[in-house]
Design brief:
Blueprint (H helix, E strand, L loop, with lengths): L17 H17 L7 H20 L4
Length: 65
């Protein structure tokens, strides 16, 4: 271990990846928006989430996220 690395406390989990965080947030946001009734376009929301998740996954694969 280099002098710049700080040891992690026992039991500390790895940080979530950006795509995982966004997916969790999106699921909660979708549930919240659905409560507004027919104002919410679920298909459009799902398309937008899918687009962002694909971009985040690509960035993660390249080490940028």
């Amino acid at each position: 271990m280099s002098s710049e690395e700080a040891p992690r406390p026992v039991g500390m989990h790895r940080p979530q990846r950006a795509a995982e965080c966004f997916a969790e947030h999106s699921a909660a946001e979708k549930d919240r928006l659905k409560s507004f009734g027919d104002v919410f376009d679920e298909a459009l929301f799902d398309e937008a989430v899918d687009l962002v998740l694909r971009k985040l996954q690509r960035m993660e694969d390249e080490g940028q996220a």
